[in-house]
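Risk register update: the risk of archive-format incompatibility is retired. Evidence:
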Amino acid sequence: VASIDGAGTISIASTKTLTAGDSNDKTFSGIISGAGSLIKTGSSTLTLSGTNTYSGTTTISQGTLAISNASALGSSSGTCVAAGSCASGTIVSNNAALSISGGITVAEPIGTTGTGPASGGAIRFTSGDNTYSGPIYLTGISSYVSAGGKQIISGTIDGAYGLTISATDNLTLTGTIGATAPPSSLSVTTTGSGVLALNADISTSGTQSYTGAGGITINAARTLTGSTITTNSALSGAYALTITGNAIINGAITSVTNLSVSGTTSLGANVSTTGTQTYTGAVTVTGSGTRTLTGSTVTNSTTLNGGNSSIGGAISNVTIFSVSGTTSLGADVTTSGTQTYTGAVTVTGSGTRTLTGSTVTNSTTLNG
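Archived output:
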């Protein structure tokens, strides 16, 4: 049919499909029932606000399907797969979108491809504090956008494609990402004063990037697994953070219990932990200013190089330690190889400081 509009009841028989949509926006507040399926076509927006009970698949092949009722997509269950098919659930095709509003919880299994019409997101949240609790499968490179309201994505996310998520308010990720099929990449950004809460473990085959205008938080021990993990904003939470891969730390890390990085680390901000810090790969200080590592013990298995440094926890198991700027020495430093301090070294705090290495070189002054 060209479109559905108004109220009333539509029953879709088993094995049948209702195809609706044109270039004009429509709202259907009635009930769609039956065992059949629904296909949204046309460039328009079709809004479903009723409590629908149809059990077939929903395919958004063109335009936007907007929902403001938690049951608007029917009574689906199951899981979408990489081929882009769902046993039952919703499929969002390239350049199409599912729009969610009204402070609802959507439990629909869904598969997505693309960035949506006008790059507004294959899944877009337009208003209200909503939760997407259904399993999500990336059937192609996808982006999700929240233009208003605080959003929670509690459903699992899988699929071997890149995913970009942006939000203008708080965004909480509570469903595991990449547990069965890791995305190729993940980029998540909140703007305004939005807090980005990483409340689940995340695995990707490639890079991960996190930017939270209101900061990044963790609510339990978290593991981020990928080729390179970039945190561009301050990260906090009284729990352990494990990064399996390389790390680029551009925002201060505070109040974390233990921090562990299995790959190399680019240190562009201070790191403070109540417990240990373990850097298995080489650590390089980037940017201007002093970098401070504060923890009970700071362990690096290879090299630590960079500009000004402030050492608040004992450094051990380092092969080579090199500081090109000044050093504030508040703890012992132990290396199996050389230690090089190009700038002035100042001993801080009480007690004795011990520098243990094959050769310890200081080119200017040592005070304390």
